[in-house]
Amino acid sequence: MNPVVLIAAAGVGFAGGLAYFHMLWRATKAHAAGRSDGLAFGMMIFVRLAAVLAVLGAALALGAGALEIGVAMLGFLAARHLSLARARRAQGAAAEKERSHAH
Length: 103
Prior knowledge:
By secondary structure, this protein is an all-alpha fold. The chain is built from 3 helices and no strands. Helices cover 88% and strands 0% of the residues. Helix 1 packs parallel to helix 3.
């Protein structure tokens, strides 16, 4: 297996994961702030999941093997880890700000 292809697959998975989780974070923030109703929020999630499945289908149609798809999924999971760390950091900062205003 060509290592350049595997590195590219990981990069594509990581970039796609960052975009996906950033959009999910923004949609969740908007929903929590009351700027989005439940149906719109559900549709946004559905469209994003459909896009992920479409990308997977396109990868299979283009002849990507299990190794390339697996490496791309590892990149996607790395983006998930990074996004969760960012969300936790933002949540902690918001809680700290609220605690400082309460005193």
